[in-house]
Amino acid sequence: MSVQERKQRERAERERLIVATARELAEHQGWDAVTTRRLAERIEYSQPVLYSHFRGKREIIGAVALDGATEMAAALRTAASAGDGPRARVTALARAYLGFAARNPAVYDAMFELDGGLAFAHEDTPQPLKDAFSALLETLGEVAGDGVHPGLFTELFWAALHGLATLTRAGRLPPEHTEARVELLVNRLAIT
Amino acid sequence: MSVQERKQRERAERERLIVATARELAEHQGWDAVTTRRLAERIEYSQPVLYSHFRGKREIIGAVALDGATEMAAALRTAASAGDGPRARVTALARAYLGFAARNPAVYDAMFELDGGLAFAHEDTPQPLKDAFSALLETLGEVAGDGVHPGLFTELFWAALHGLATLTRAGRLPPEHTEARVELLVNRLAIT
DNA sequence: CTCTAATGTCTAGCGGTGCTAGAATTCCGG
DNA sequence: CCGGAATTCTAGCACCGCTAGACATTAGAG
Q1: Chain B contact for A109, CB < 8 A?
Q2: How many domains does chain A have?
Q3: Can you give the residue range of the structural domain that contains B4?
Q4: Spatial CB neighbours of A19, under 8 Å, sequence gap ≥ 6
């Protein structure tokens, strides 16, 4: 049995290597540079090996997205827990969200811009994604205001953050006033 | 001279045909289906003809985006002018924006998701894009609130709309409560 | 009206993509 | 040590964006 266990371990290890390499390559040179050939070369295996782990490139993107969602959820919770008072927590949360998107553009794209073949807003949504949304909900639910459904409020706040993140990174919004936009967002949306 | 004028006219006509065909193809089968080969076949010319009008595929996307921006600006102004009172205008504007994005997903992608090689937020931004932003600004400037820069407010409102549009269309947000989200957005952000 | 030169268009092909069939190799259990 | 199963690789498919150079068409001079 031990032999098969070792093989299974090595296989899992290699799968992690593929995802980590894809992420690194995407973060350094953009997702366009992540081709199956380059990826195979980096992990020092031939192309078909990739397809013994994933159905195709999209599933690799999906795997990077799930990794990212886990990290993002942790980063959001850490940031939110640092603030005292609901409003400070919300501000910290918003900054953390935009910071994560700015620091990990490729991962953010994998999560929300590219097709990673992931389900959203269903019960078969992968746990890390649900959990990242929960991290938002935990803090934002406090400031939804009376009679406003916390989930709906979180969706709206999230959409605003997502818009700011993507438009800023794509050069659609000048980066100078990011902080002012965050403050305005929190001031208007959060009811304390 | 007349001969050259005719040629020039025909050339301009063909360029319009290329853009219209690209748009139609993208709207019906997605941008992935818009390949230079297919596009060339549809317009009944060979591939290199495309490159005598545009530097490459990205410029074709850019041309579709500019078309879309002009249309969107008109749609936004029409919608906003229908409402009476600043708040009604803003609500109508928001609905029109999301409606345009939902009805013209490929054009919306060309404008904001894909790389069409267009400049944003500079003085060398193409006029249609500036004008679309102006259409937002005209209505939203009325409800920015005291001491809030109208441009900054418009950027934030726009980002929220953009987030709602993209997340909804990508299946990240359930489409059922779109209207409720719009109402919440206007209620919180607009100061009348 | 003809011949030339320029303009316009096409054919063919380059290096790249994601993905896969089938050959070749490696490894494990007996 | 060997046979068979599991694994990995080589080679190739159809397609992509893009372009050099051959070819056809046309305009204007004589």
Answers
A1: no
A2: 2
A3: 1-54
A4: A60, A63, A64, A67
